[in-house]
Structures are given as structure tokens and as C-alpha cells.
Amino acid sequence: MTGEGTNCYLIGSGQRRVLLDTGSPNEESVVKSLTQVLEAEKCEIDKIIISHWHFDHIGGVEAIQREICGDIPLFKHKRVPYPKVYKGAGEKMPSGVKIPKFEEQFWNFLTDGDVLETSCGRKIQVLFTPGHADDHICLWMKDERVLFSGDNILGNSTTVIDNYNSYMNSLEKIRALGDCLILPGHGGVIENGLERVEFYINHRRMRENQIIEQLENGEKRIRDIVKVLYADVPEVLHPAASINVAMTLDLLVEKEAVSIVDADSEIFCKL
């Protein structure tokens, strides 16, 4: 799920800089390339900020502490449980990888709206943006109009989500920032950030409309809607698609566009 790898960013231009994300554990960590950059730039890490708890973002913390500097302050947002959890939703962690337990490390917990500064005086605002993960944050540099989007917005594809309602709220929050340069957690730089955010929102809204259309056509069960909307997708991926449809239907119920017919939330109809 990490594509060509995780983008980790050194933020600032002074002697002490902020590191956003740390890559995967052990041999896949960012230690080697980070060491080369620190030596070339003649700078050091002031603090580490983690965009979210997934292994390919938090996994290199231990190696960086061990190989580069053991007393670097660590920052992240607390995990905030969703009102409803969807079994099987979200990014799948690879088997056989030892995922660090961040609870075992000392963290300075961030909250939405917090403002941090680089050593050269650049301001970084924390935006709590759950939906891909329950602790996900983006970093916003208003003066530079640069957004570090983590995995909420990617450079080369749409992203995996674990709560649809939270994710859509996060996209709207990002859209309100206006046009900007987006530096994503995976993939290339996004020059026209607002255009990409609106593409993400429109893509999700299109899927909502397609689901409503299927209800109007007589399809009532999630599995039947999936068979139609994901007909060109291998059936092995239909369980994951079913989770996306279930999350979307719950939002449509909340918006009073759809109603639940049975107590088991298996049959739906358009209002």
C-alpha cells in the first residue's frame, strides 16, 4: 500500500529542521538517505511529526532514534475512535512486518489548530483530518500556501479510507484552504492542490449518486449494488468494495437521502 515508497519531508531551512514521517521499519527506514541529507545540508532534526499511525509513516522512528539522535521530540495526534468501526476497512498492514507500538514511546500529542514553528520562524499549523486513519493530520503552511497532505491526498491515485463521513469532512476542510501546493505522503508533488481536492470530492459524490441510482433501479442489498458498480473489478476485491458501499450508505442515511429497511442494515431504499 505504499506505492513507490513513503515521502518523508525535512521542513525548514535553518540548522534545525522538522521531519515529517519516518518511512517503514528497519531496513526500509529513511535513515540512510536522511543521514546523507543532514550531512549535505549541515543540519539536524529538531522534532519528528508523524502524520498517522500506519507502519510506513511511523515505522522508522526507532531506527532514527537509534542511528541519528535518541532524544528527538516526537509529535503526533492521538487516535480518536470513530462512532462506528467497519471491520476490514482501511489500509491493510503487511503480514510479517513488526509494526512499532507507538504507545511505548513518549509522544507530545498535537491537537487541531496547533501551530509549530521551524527554527527559521516558519509557521506550521496542524489540521486534524481523520478518514484515512483515526489520528491523521495534515500540516498547513499558510504563508507559503503549502499543504503536507499525508495519505489523505496522494500524488498518483485516490486513497484508502476507514471512515467515509470523517474523510469527506476532512476533504471539505482541506478544500476551504483554497488553492495550494500539495506535498503528499505518496506520489509526486501536486501543483494545483485545489483541483485535486475537488477531484477527490467529486469522485466520492459520483459514487454516492451511483448508489442512489442502483436503489432506484431496485437493487436493495449491498452485495447486489457492488456487483453492478464494480462489475469490472475482480470479485476478490468485492469485499473491500462492499465496505466502501456500506460506509457511503451510512452517510446517505445520515443525510436522509436513503433509509434502512431492515434491522440488520442489510436492505436499503431511496427516500
From TrEMBL:
Where does the record place the Metallo-beta-lactamase domain? 5-186
The record's section on SMART domains has: Lactamase_B
Q: Please indicate which superkingdom the organism of origin belongs to.
A: Eukaryota
* Entry function: Endoribonuclease; cleaves preferentially 3' to purine-pyrimidine dinucleotide motifs in single-stranded RNA. The cleavage product contains a free 3' -OH group. Has no activity with double-stranded RNA or DNA. Required for normal mitochondrial function and cell viability.
Task: Identify this protein by name.
Answer: Endoribonuclease LACTB2
Species this chain originates from: Oikopleura dioica (Tunicate)
Q: What is the lineage of its organism?
A: Eukaryota, Metazoa, Chordata, Tunicata, Appendicularia
